[in-house]
Every structure is written in structure tokens, then in C-alpha cells.
Design goal:
Four copies of one chain form a homotetramer.
Chain A (H helix, E strand, L loop, with lengths): L3 H20 L3 E2 L4 H12 L5 E8 L1 H7 L7 E2 L5 E9 L2 E10 L2 E10 L1
Antiparallel strand pairs in A: 1-3, 2-4, 4-5, 5-6
């Protein structure tokens, strides 16, 4: 039977996959980064065992990505950093998504009882 | 060749389909209705010819839809009303999504030059 | 009151926005281009007034986009061409999405009664 | 530092969240259940450490959910069962999503070295 720590890590993964695939593709420009960050964090915090989510969309990266003259781009992992804290039973899991060699990577940071 | 009014109606439809399928499925509870409304409106307003978007997620309908004990539900058309104003060349199109016989319907309201 | 042709163009736009924002972000590699094309076309053909949809995901563009070592990329408009035929009342609308100056553009092609 | 088993469970969760939030909301009727099942499985199998995915969309539940006269509904967790096998280092994780008391639940089934 899976341990509490394994369950907590599974739950942490669910939240990351959910956040990413729900919001990837959303139209974004410097005009809506703040409202999008907040909506992403607050919607995922509804999910079970999800204590807190922070989303930082980098305005400078958004500006760089806007190159086709329409004034906006689509949200992808390379434009943002995300951190989450998941608590399941007595286990706390911290996770992070950030750029590594130019590619957004979702990582388990710590798993603590 | 399509007329300006037809183009404007096509653009209006794109925005509606975009908003709906980008955000349907987002976890929602009374705790995040306001931030989700704002993020939806502001992200779609980035799209070309889209002058304004209003999104109203009905807290009472969200509460009714939360019946599985997890404290949240997934966003669907029946939980919200949406209005948009699209301006293309000298044509203004107003659209609306609202419940009709219990089913959310996207409608052209007016097309004016 | 909107004309039948304007309604048909609005419906055509809805289908385009739906297809794009439902499927943008889907993991894609040369291993799943065919099944994804088919699922995209068949799901949107369910929508009202949508007579036919064709989706072509370009394997060569997918291969070029896979540059981060994980063996897949995320679906975006620049990897595919889409055509649709919408019939509403006695109006037939043909639409197309294709690259124009490197940016995917959704266009009304013809509106015929 | 997280163990291999915890990493594998995190990866398993990511796949589940991805599958769910990428495809929830897709228009579905008995006409496109097979192509949608296949596209969902094959797209998620692109993700790292994901050995196999099976998706079963229940035609009878889809038919029941189609009640608004448009001939289709939107994909939600209650219409399908999903199983996945994730292999990370020497750990194999099996997961399943199925209805429990009418609500779709994502579960870790086994974690084996």
C-alpha cells in the first residue's frame, strides 16, 4: 500500500499537471499578467490537500515572446515560475516549476513528515 | 469576399469559443469566482478586435454545483454569463452567453455599422 | 437582427476558437499526430452547424519544435493547418487556419448562400 | 532528498492532472469516443516516464449526459475510466481514475520497486 509520503507526492503532481494544462495557451500580455497569476493560484488552491500556490509570470519574458504584432502571446511554462505546498496527512510536499536549460521543469523540492 | 460585418461576426465567434474552451474545467468555488472572472475577461481582451468582455460567475450556482464534498466544482457554461463587444473596421458586434432552457447558449445580439 | 450569413460566420468563429483553445498545449510528437488530428476533427464536428473539419499536423514542424530532449512538444497553431465547413440555414461558410508570415491566422474563406 | 518512489508518484500525478485538464471540456458523443480515447492515451504517453495509458469513455454514460438536444456533451471525469503505468528509475507506479460514490477519484494503486 502506498505510504502517506507517496500519496502526498502523487497529489502534488496532480496539482502541477492540472495548473499547467488548464492554463497553457491562455492569451497573455503585460496587461493581464497579474490577474492571470492570481486566478491560476486561487483556482488550484481549491483542490484537495493544496495549501498554497504562487504563480509568477515574468513580464519581461512575455514582452519578448510577443513578436507577431498582435500584442499578446500564449501562456507556456517558459514564461512563469510556480511553487506549491501540498499537505496530506502529516506530510508536507514542496514543489517548484522553473526554467532549467531553457526548458520548464516541474520538481519535488522537499518531502517532510 | 466576406463583408466587414461577416468578418466581425467571425471574430466574435472566435473569442467566445476561445474563452469557453480555455477556461471550462477550471476548479471553482465561492473563494475564487472574482479572480477567475477577471482573468477570463482580461485574457480574452488581448485578442484582436476585442473591445470588452464581462464575465459573471454566479456564486449561488457554484454553491449548488458543489455536491461531492471536495469543496469545489469545475467551471462550465451553466455557471456563468458572458458579454462581449467586438469592433472590426466600422462594425460593432455584441454577443452574449446565457442560460436558455438550462443550456448555455452563445448568441449574436446586435451587429451595427 | 443579425442575418443568416452573419450567424453562420459567428458559428464558424466559435468552432475555430473551440478547437484551438481545447487542444493547444496537448503533448505531441510524430508518434501521435494522426490520432490527435482525428480526435480534434471528430470532436469539433459534434458542434452544431459544423459539417466537416480537417486537421493536418505537420510532422516535420513537430520534429523541428522538439528541441528540449524530452521527445515531444506542445501543440500550437504554427504546427497545423485546419479547414472547416459550417452550414447554418442556407449559408455555407468555409474557414481556414494557416501560417501567414510565421503566425497562424484564422480566416473566413467564403460565405455562400 | 525525495526518494525514487516519491519521484515516481509525483510524475504519476503530473500525468493525471495533465490528461484531465487538457481534455476536460472536449465535445463528445458516441460518434467520437474511440478517437478521443486514443488521442488522450497517445498524447500523454509522450510525457517522460509514462509507459502506458488506457482511457475508456463509456458510451452509455455519454448518451445519458446528452440531454440538451445538441447531440453532444463535454468530457468530464465521470464519463471515463483511466489507468496509467509510470516507470521512474526502478520504481513502477500504477494509477487509476474511476467513479467512487459518483465522483471521479484519481488513485495510486501500487508503487513497486
Amino acid at each position: 500500500m502506498p505510504t502517506d509520503a507517496q500519496q502526498a507526492c502523487f497529489e502534488a503532481g496532480i496539482k502541477f499537471g492540472s495548473l499547467y494544462h488548464q492554463f497553457a495557451g491562455t492569451p497573455v500580455s503585460p496587461a493581464n499578467t497579474r490577474s492571470l497569476e492570481r486566478a491560476m493560484a486561487e483556482s488550484i488552491e481549491n483542490q484537495p490537500f493544496c495549501e498554497s500556490v504562487t504563480v509568477t509570470i515574468h513580464d519581461d519574458r512575455v514582452r519578448e515572446a510577443i513578436d507577431h504584432g498582435n500584442g499578446y502571446t500564449e501562456l507556456t511554462g517558459s514564461l512563469m515560475d510556480v511553487t506549491m505546498r501540498i499537505v496530506h496527512e502529516d506530510v508536507t510536499v514542496r514543489t517548484r516549476m522553473e526554467l532549467e536549460d531553457g526548458y520548464p521543469l516541474m520538481r519535488l523540492v522537499t518531502v517532510e513528515s
